[in-house]
Structure formats: structure tokens, C-alpha cells
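Batch job 17 of 40 flagged for manual review because the log was empty.
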Amino acid sequence: LTATLIHDELTAAYGQGVISYSTGAN
């Protein structure tokens, strides 16, 4: 895996986590 691909995967996972957390908090 390239660093860019790993970064994109982590960013996507983190983004989903934030959305889930925000939805749950609200």
C-alpha cells in the first residue's frame, strides 16, 4: 500500500467516525 492510499483510508474512516459520533451526540 502507498502512503497516499493509507492516508485516504484513514481519512475516510475518521470522517465516518466523526459523523457517527456527531449523530449519536445529537
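Reviewer: the log was empty due to a logging misconfiguration, but the result itself is present. DSSP finds one helix and no strands in the chain. Unflagging and moving on to job 18.
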